[in-house]
Amino acid sequence: YETIDELRGFEFLPLNHLADDDLELSLAAREPLNPNIGWVPTYRFDMRCEGRYAGSISLRIANTTDIVMYLGHIGYNVDSHFRGRHFAARSCKLVFPIAFKHGINPVWITCNPDNWASRRSCELAGGEMVEIVDVPPTNSLYHRGDYQKCRYRVSI
User: Fold this and answer.
1) Is the pTM of this model over 0.85?
2) Is the pLDDT of residue 43 over 80?
3) What is the DSSP letter of 137?
């Protein structure tokens, strides 16, 4: 899925229960391709711990330049009350098989260079830091204030 045209006709997979000890991922949304706003098919999950919301993780199914270079296949956010328990890295490991079933390998995860917690999460998930790249001014991330991204590769 390297171009938007290749994503037309994309189908989401049925999913098994995704859990790791006290962490569970519950499917929050399946967002279809929307080329008008630049969205690729995406699975969105809520992280839950003992039934409580603990954060979120998204898996983007595409190998477009924006995904591979700047956005990453995976994006996550952990609620401050649940930080320090490696929920981001553990959640990544839970969604890797879904990426693999869609032919995504390697998986790219990006983060801001000054986000040391996210960098550590990428490493704990099995990511190898490849490089730090400049985000082009034409990219939407640049307009949010993200001028550089660390790129981590995870081979699954």
Assistant:
1) yes
2) yes
3) T
